[in-house]
TrEMBL record:
Designated name of the protein: Acetyl-CoA hydrolase/transferase C-terminal domain-containing protein
InterPro entries: AcetylCoA_hyd_C, AcetylCoA_hyd_C_sf, ActCoA_hydro, NagB/RpiA_transferase-like
Pfam families: AcetylCoA_hyd_C
Domain Acetyl-CoA hydrolase/transferase C-terminal: 331-491
UniProt KW keywords: Hydrolase, Transferase
Lineage: Bacteria, Pseudomonadati, Pseudomonadota, Alphaproteobacteria, Rhodobacterales
Length: 608
């Protein structure tokens, strides 16, 4: 192994060994060694005699909002919120439509919503289940793998990304695949165990920068009324002694927080106050006497909190968590780094072929994954139970299927397992409220024949094994009441529900106002906006919901008008400080003045 020399020299040596046709396998998310990647892509860009093909996923970028209010909010706080993470050059070239002709990038999962309308990214996207990405990759015969690793006394840890690299290394050891492995060390990465541990001599090149770059830090999103309600409903489906998988973001945080409240026996008053139909099927409300085991492609904040609190404690092969990758906050990385090694060994990082699939050690996996609940988020659901999670009707990829379908498959393959897909009942776009439960949708991630459990803020729809008419009724009953009759009319016109079916009275008041009456009294106590903390300042937390409202109204003068009217009154002392944070305390010109009035109006129309 060559080490202790620069990224540019390593890039030159790699080209000398690999040759002019470089086929690079690059880890998903945090595992990209950005210094090495930029050195290699820079070299290839200067050498038209070379060709570089990159296969990867989830290229991380700090956000660059296109709207002026978003820019004013984020730009002063980028380093504090996202870390001083370096720009990945090929992502800049893609976004600015100046990718060198001898470099191509294929991704099987995109940073959610960030690549809509970017032609080079959309056309080169590869749609694949997470477990099938390895097959796509090996079909291209990669001759180079670059990886960010945690340095250890006797080797390296793949840390955040053993997900595919573990299997690639196994194939190289077996002689079925030949490639060069170059690593970049970063001591900020937690030294995770499990299958993530590799020997020093596995790496052909190692870059050990004197000053490693700062890791990307994901920003925790606020958990609103809708997310908390969904989390509460989901918590009723999780059996003690079971197996758990949840995803990143506010919905995952809400589910984990609800489980922590449940374990503390702190939900009885919330359930007594619930105005929505709870049914008899899902009644898991007690504390966790046995504890949970987690098998999850992504190790997320919610899973770690449950582990730290002792809710996740059921051990399988010495570990209570098996996960394949992580991208989280600086606080998350710090807690893992500082965790005693014997405690951290309870979290085993494994390839995605282990976490997301049953084949391979199938008997052991079946015995371990009892009472499994796989919880994932969706964008749209049809009345017949099909779900869209990764793309729009016109084919634009929002993110990717990732491992969602893998876990749906597991839910049907395992005894007593369930797939739980969650989504808000509505969304607001250009000032108009739309139902996320629809009659049909022009894209499908999970087909109707694999329908299982769907959860909105208004309740749980248990769909598995039900007839189409029963499924339609269950979905209508968790839809927003403003859209129920229209949805039912479409089902009737298609001859899919009996003419005498009527929406039961218990489901006729599925409204935001009724939801607020339920969870609102707990928002300053048991159901906080940031249950796991935040890097946002108090002023930023106050601005977030107001800016969210304006984003929903953007593009519709009619929707913006109420905020303009509300913002015309004189500025209060508190508002002055918030406008100062937005750089709008002394507006110069009509545009800035209009933005200041809109922000004031939004603050007044969504008071804390």
């Amino acid at each position: 192994m060559k080490k202790n020399y620069g990224a540019a020299e390593i890039a030159e040596d790699i080209v000398g060994r690999v040759g002019p046709d470089i086929r690079l396998a690059l880890p998903l998310g945090l595992g990209k060694p950005v210094t090495l990647v930029n050195a290699l892509t820079g070299l290839v860009a200067r050498r038209p005699d070379l060709h570089l093909s990159i296969f990867t996923a989830l290229t991380l970028e700090r956000p660059a909002p296109s709207d002026p209010l978003g820019s004013r909010f984020l730009e002063p706080a980028l380093d504090r919120l996202f870390g001083a993470y370096p720009q990945v050059d090929y992502a800049t070239w893609l976004r600015e439509h100046r990718m060198p002709p001898n470099i191509e990038v294929h991704e099987f999962f995109l940073l959610a919503g960030r690549w809509l309308g970017i032609e080079d990214s959309q056309t080169r996207y590869v749609s694949a289940n997470y477990t099938h990405a390895l097959d796509v990759l090996t079909g291209a015969r990669p001759n180079l793998v670059l990886q960010l690793v945690a340095p250890m006394a006797n080797g390296f840890s793949l840390s955040c990304n053993p997900d595919i690299t573990c299997d690639l290394l196994d194939m190289r050891r077996a002689g079925t695949l030949d490639f060069i492995l170059a690593v970049e060390t970063n001591a900020e990465l937690p030294p995770m165990g499990g299958s993530a541990l590799i020997e020093t001599d596995e790496a052909d090149f190692a870059l050990a920068p004197d000053e490693p770059f700062e890791l990307f830090s994901a920003v925790r999103q606020p958990v609103g009324d809708v997310e908390h309600a969904i989390g509460l409903h989901v918590s009723r489906t999780i059996p003690d002694g079971g197996t758990l998988q949840i995803g990143i973001g506010s919905l995952g945080d809400a589910v984990a927080h609800a489980l922590l409240l449940r374990d503390a026996c702190d939900l009885s008053d919330i359930w007594r106050a619930c105005p929505f139909f709870l049914g008899e099927r899902f009644r898991e409300t007690g504390s966790f006497e046995i504890g949970l085991y987690a098998v999850t492609e992504m190790l997320v904040e919610g899973i770690l909190r449950l582990f730290e609190a002792g809710v996740i404690r059921r051990k399988i092969g010495g570990a209570s968590i098996h996960a394949a990758f992580f991208v989280e906050t600086r606080d998350f990385y710090r807690r893992l780094r500082e965790m005693p090694s014997d405690r951290r060994s309870g979290i085993a990082m494994e390839p995605v072929s282990f976490t997301n699939a049953l084949y391979g050690e199938e008997d052991d996996k079946r015995n371990a994954r009892t009472g499994a609940r796989f919880v994932n988020a969706a964008m749209k659901a049809t009345l017949l139970g099909a779900v869209a999670s990764d793309a729009t009707e016109d084919g634009q990829v929002v993110s990717g299927v990732g491992g969602q379908f893998n876990f749906v498959e597991q839910a049907f393959a395992l005894k007593d397992a369930r797939s739980i897909l969650t989504l808000p009942a509505t969304r607001t776009r250009r000032g108009r409220v739309e139902s996320n439960i629809v009659w049909t949708y022009g894209h499908t991630t999970v087909p109707r024949h694999m329908r299982d459990i769907v959860v909105t803020e208004y309740g749980i729809a248990d769909l598995r094994g039900k007839s189409d008419a029963e499924v339609i009724a269950a979905m209508v009953e968790i839809a927003d009441s403003r859209f129920q009759e229209g949805l039912l009319a479409k089902a009737r016109s298609a001859g899919k529900v009996s003419a005498d079916y009527t929406i039961p009275e218990r489901a006729r008041s599925n409204t935001p106002d009724r939801l607020k009456q339920w969870v609102g009294p707990y928002r300053n106590g048991k159901l906080p906006e940031f249950p796991f903390g935040t890097d946002f300042t108090e002023a930023e937390q106050r601005l977030l919901p107001a800016l969210g409202r304006l984003k929903e109204a953007r593009g519709s003068l009619r929707a913006l008008l109420p905020y303009l009217v509300a913002g015309l009154r004189r500025v209060s002392g508190t508002e002055a400080a918030l406008l100062e944070r937005m750089g709008l305390s002394r507006p110069s010109g009509i545009r800035d003045l209009a933005m200041a009035v809109l922000v004031r109006g939004a603050l007044r129309r969504c008071p804390r």
